[in-house]
Every structure is written in structure tokens, then in C-alpha cells.
């Protein structure tokens, strides 16, 4: 872990060194490949969120560099290093004091999905989920929530429980391969996965809607200086008041709720 942390510090320092100095410290922006809000396609970061993040930092007059990592690594950087901005991160009571929360992106409602061929899967309550192998991502709010419901990680003694990976794309691929029984996502996220991976979405079915939702945010690392945090929050407020936020995030507002495939 110490070696990994030193590597993250060095990596962040190298990224920041490539950004010219400005009146406020430069930031390293970290995210993941998480369809449909932000994802890599043909080597480019796509989706509605990246342009919003760019406008946010420009409005705040903060220079930045951006990197796409597996979620576990992005989360570690944002929770341990200064001047790191992360998106999209679920705002939960457990995380409340661990980050500076800049602004909300959207609200997420999760559901469990299985293969259409697995008609044997019958889950109507959270208790029923204990009987299945569930594909989730490390340090993801869904894994944390399932853990709170008493669902443990899979082990040599038990096939059922949480099968944890470092990125959500692996979970969906495991679902297709029959290596997990269900994955928590949404209809919007599922459709995006199907388009990107050239998979027929009729191969999946929604088993049950999970009884919890979260807000996804842009957040700054706790060690980020207060002037930077104030600048970011002020810039977010101006984007909101001017209508730029609404125009960029139009597919996900006005009551729409989606879940990212992470």
C-alpha cells in the first residue's frame, strides 16, 4: 500500500508539472470509464460530464490535467492527495467529511439486472440477494450499500455474495459470461453498455429495483486549499444560474434518474 501511495503521489506530481501555473494551484482531475455520463471511446473522453467539468474549471480560472483510471485508483487519489477533483462520486453520509463537495451532477436510482436466460433468478427483496453472486466495484456506493445489508464478499467457502472488481465494465462482461448472477445498474446505463460493446440489450432483464438512491457529485480532495474549493463552488453556482449546467446535463435532469455502469 505504501508503494502504491508513493506511486500515486509521483504520478500526480508529474501530471501537475505539465500544467502551467495560474493564480490558483493546478488540479488533477480523475474519473473513470463509466457509461453513459463519462466514458472513453476511440481514445477520447466522451459523455455529458467532461464538457461540464471543463467549463467548471475554466469558470473557476483553474488549470488542470485529466486522467481516466479504474475507480479504485481514482478514489484513492482523491481521498489521499491535495488538489484532486473527482467525478462522478456518490455523496453518502459515510463520505460526507472525506471530501469537499463542489456540485451535484444527477440523481441515481439502482436496479439489479440479470441475463434473460437466467429465469431461475427470483429476487423480490434485499434478503433474496444473499442467495446470488453479485458483480460490484471496489469502493463503489453499491458495494458499500450491499455490505450494509449484510451481504459479504464471495469466498472459497461460499459462491454467493459480492464479486468485487476494480471497474464496472468487468462486471457487465462477467454477467454476459455467466460468472456473476446479477449486476446493479440502470436501463440507461445498460443501453449505453450494449451500444458500446455491440451487445443485444434483450439479453438482459431487470430483476428488482433497489430501495435506495444517491446523488452523484463533483468533489475535491480534502487536502485541497480553501480558496480553490471556494472558486470551484462559485463557478458551479454560476454555471447553474446561467443555464449552462442545464443545457449540458439535459438528458439527466427534469426528474430523470440513471445509474452508471461502474
Topology:
Elements: H1 2-17, E1 27-31, E2 39-41, E3 44-46, H2 49-59, E4 64-68, H3 71-80, E5 84-91, E6 99-115, E7 133-137, H4 141-148, E8 161-165, H5 168-177, E9 183-185, H6 187-197, E10 204-221, H7 226-242, H8 244-248
Parallel strand pairs: 1-4, 1-5, 7-8
Antiparallel strand pairs: 2-3, 5-10, 6-9, 6-10
Helix pairs in contact: 2-7
Subunit arrangement of the protein: single chain
What is the terminal-to-terminal distance? Answer: 23 Å
Q: What is the approximate shape?
A: globular
Radius of gyration: 19 Å
Residue share in helix: 25-40%
Query: Strand order within the widest sheet?
Result: 4-1-5-10-6-9
Content-based structural category: alpha/beta
Query: Number of helix segments?
Result: 8
The main sheet comes to:
6 strands, mixed
The total count of strands amounts to 10
Molecular structure report:
With 262 residues, the chain is an alpha/beta fold. The strands form 3 sheets. It has a 6-stranded mixed beta sheet. It has a two-stranded antiparallel ribbon with strand order 2-3. Helix 2 packs across helix 7. It is globular. It starts with a helix and ends in a 14-residue tail after the last helix.
In short:
The chain has helices at residues 2-17, 49-59, 71-80, 141-148, 168-177, 187-197, 226-242, 244-248, and strands at residues 27-31, 39-41, 44-46, 64-68, 84-91, 99-115, 133-137, 161-165, 183-185, 204-221. It is an alpha/beta fold and 262 residues long.
Q: What brief labels describe this structure?
A:
262 residues, alpha/beta, two-stranded antiparallel sheet, 8 helices, 27% strand, globular
